[in-house]
Amino acid sequence: MDLIQSLGEVVLNHSSTIGLRILPFQKMILPRALVCVPTSVGEVSAKVVLQPDGAHRFKSEHDEIARLAQETGESYLSLKRRIDAEIEAFLSAHPPEAFNLTDLDFQHSNIDFERAERKGVSEVIYAEHKRPEQVRDIAAALVARGQNVFATRASYEQYLAVKEAVPEAMFDELARIIHYTIESCAINQLGKIAVVNAGTSDLPIAQEAALTAEYLGGEVLRISDVGVAGLHRLLSRIDEIRNCQVIIVVAGMEGALPSVIAGLVDKPVIAVPTSVGYGASFGGISALLGMLNSCGSGVTVVNIDNGFGAGYQAAMITRLKAS
């Protein structure tokens, strides 16, 4: 959204228009596979696609033909006609079933499609630092295999890209999570998970933890803004927290809240340090070290801002209790 806003401001500042319409668009993508075809000038990549009417066709790769034309000195159009004829002959000799037309044709990721069978949960996409089209490709490939989409640390631009391929995908802006569920992950869950955050500034990480636990089938109790600066706020909700099977505690600054809660409950506490705080918090290192040195028994610590890891671990604990 920041990029869209910036582009809009450039247009409004440097043109005569007085308003802009900003509309999302959708893109239809045919199931396809990338096939390497032996030709008279070497191997050439071609996309094999499945049309809505059930027919198959191919599309040769422009960049490869342009490179080969430059290397051989043959004109682009002449070489393309020759290569297309050789690709057509090759594909006609191979049934469509020989190609996996549910996978998209990208080289940037090697998706673990078997993870759902091993762990009961499809591969989760860590979206940060990925290009929008890369997140889109991975999401589309998962859906094509009948698997769920759950992408953490996502941007709005990445969400718009995913919606091109998965129009039903949802985006939680606070947690920065893109999600689309085909089949519920709930497997023998038992017990409620509390997600407690010290301050409102910790909410994005707390929401990431809560959504992750819910995605994995957990029932979540959210309790916000009960940090140690006003301990009475925590004590007024402590009975609700004690009734949960696992407690995720999200805190920045000095990171004291997990130790306090661990001394008041008989359940496992998963501590999540956040990067919230002034200079000497060192981007969450202060909270991390405080939690690692907790005198409260039963405290486990995940990485800084790792709400996803905490939510996943909490869901696994409740699953173990159920089984």
Describe the structure.
The chain is α/β, with parallel strands linked by helices and 323 residues long. It has three domains: 32-98, Ubiquitin-like (UB roll), CATH 3.10.20; 115-180; 192-322, 3-Layer(aba) Sandwich (Rossmann fold), CATH 3.40.50. The chain is built from twelve helices and twelve strands. The chain has helices at 2-13, 62-72, 76-92, 115-119, 132-144, 156-165, 203-215, 231-235, 238-242, 257-262, 285-292, 307-322; strands at 32-39, 42-50, 56-60, 125-126, 149-152, 170-172, 177-180, 192-197, 219-223, 246-251, 269-273, 299-301. The strands form three sheets. The protein has a five-stranded parallel β-sheet. α10 links the parallel β10 and β11. α7 runs parallel beside α12 (307-322).
In short:
It is built from 12 helices and 12 strands.
Q: What is the N-to-C order of secondary-structure elements (H for helix, E for strand)?
A: HEEEHHHEHEHEEEHEHHEHEHEH
Query: In what range is the share of β-strand residues?
Result: 15-25%
How many domains, as an integer? Answer: 3
- Can you tell me the CATH topology of the largest domain? Rossmann fold
